[in-house]
Amino acid sequence: MGERMDPSVITDLMARALENRDILSIAAGFTDNSILPKQLVREAVLALTEADAPNGILQYGLNQGKLGLREEIRQWLEGFPGERGGCIGTDQLIVSNGSQQSLYLAMQTLCDPGDIVLVERPSYFVFLEMLKGLGIEAVGMPSLPDGRIDLEGTAGLFDDLKYSGKWNRVKALYLIGYFANPSSRCVPEADKVELAKLMDEKDLFVPVLEDAAYRDLYFKEPYPARSIFSLEAYDPLPKLFLGTFTKPFATGMKVGYGVCSDAHWLEKMLSTKGHHDFGTSHFSQGIIEYVLKQGLYESYLQHQRKHYSEKADMMDEALEATGIRDLGWAWDKPEGGLLMWLRGPEHIDTRIGQPFCETCIDRGVLYVPGDLSFTGNEPDNCVRLSYGALESDRLVEASRRFGEVAKTFS
User: Fold this and answer.
1) What average pLDDT score do residues 32-49 get?
2) Total structural domains in the chain?
3) Under 8 Å between Cβ of 314 and 387
């Protein structure tokens, strides 16, 4: 019973960090406690409880989510530069317990054990764990040296799936459009369009999921690629766009959302969600709705973006100071999100249980091994670091510790 349900890797890593106060964790993508929106939440709670009426904010709500919050989300999404007005309806939105629940509902309703979901390389390792637990096979689309999707290689992959008899098992394609976990890269609009054209050319008519958990956390300007809901090339396909208020606002609120273009698929997701929880916390939804409706979200985000941009600079500078780039380590400074993706020399094995990983733990620093983010033929020399949670001096120290171990093994 439950043979596929292995313990979550990130849960194990988090537990190791919390059990040992001497370990500095740059593993889990936590946000920074020092800038959580305590005053905004206090203001919202006061306003909501003063105005509360029978069957109001402290009562059960709709399984699909508060109508007022769904309307605020619709307006927020259509406010991004270039997005097509009127392409999203409140009836297409589902409010979930973080975007992770929407992802799970999508997979639970789309796939059966043995089905295939196409993903990027690298991809969100918690999603890959989820697929494994559901008995679904993740197949990585080839990537170019700069991390972009290799469209020519993907065309070859599609052909291979046809020739091997697996084509009919492909049930979805998963993209991480903005400041991806783990790579922090974005998918250019041209690549999105060409991928949709390739799907049309190869007669791959399956739902496309675009994960945008970090879209709001850009540092300077919104990434200019429009969402799949605004690109005509995706109009014939069922679509699910995923967003959240956990990372950009407050993780403890656990409020995310999905926008689904297919009414039948959404109905199945809502039915399944009803089995889970009867609806996301009405109280948490009310707080998010209040912050959006009062125009407070954008001003708070401006502070968040500046704060995390400065922390990304700190980690980048601390790693540079160790000199490991000259020893074959490579990374790009992020332009948004909470994560940094490093590629080490090919001879370094960063996997859990290997000497490099164990030495890092012994030296008091924890990271996410990069092999967890691949589906096969994975490189063993990558790591994912997070600059989100640690305060400045501890972040610099954690980066220094990591760099010292990297120098030892390089």
Assistant:
1) 94
2) 2
3) yes
Q: Is 239 in the same domain as 152?
A: yes
Question: Domain of 372?
Answer: 9-30+299-409
pLDDT score, position 56: 83
**Are residues 251 and 314 both part of a single domain?**
no
CA atoms within 13 A on the CB side of 176: 28
pLDDT tens digit string along 237-259? 999 999 999 999 999 999 999 99
pLDDT of residue 1 exceeding 50, the answer is no
* Range of weakest confidence among 15-24, 70-79, 194-203, 216-225: 15-24
Q: Give the residue among 163, 172, 142 at the shortest CA–CA distance from 154.
A: 142
Distance between alpha carbon 112 and the CA centroid of its chain, in Å?
23
**Residue 234: CATH number of its domain:** 3.40.640.10
Decide if 1 is inside a domain.
no
Q: Dihedral (C-alpha) 337, 141, 99, 250: value to the nearest 10 degrees? A: -10
Residue-wise DSSP of 19-49: H-TTPEE-SS----GGG--HHHHHHHHHHHH
| Cβ-count burial 302-333 (b if 16+ within 10 Å, e if not) | eebbeebbebbebbbebbeebebeeeebebee
**Could you say which of 268, 295, 322 is where a domain stops?**
295
Residue that is last in its domain, among 264, 295, 326:
295
Same domain, 85 and 182: yes
Average pLDDT of the chain, as a whole number: 94
pLDDT at residue 13 in the model: 62
pTM value is 0.95
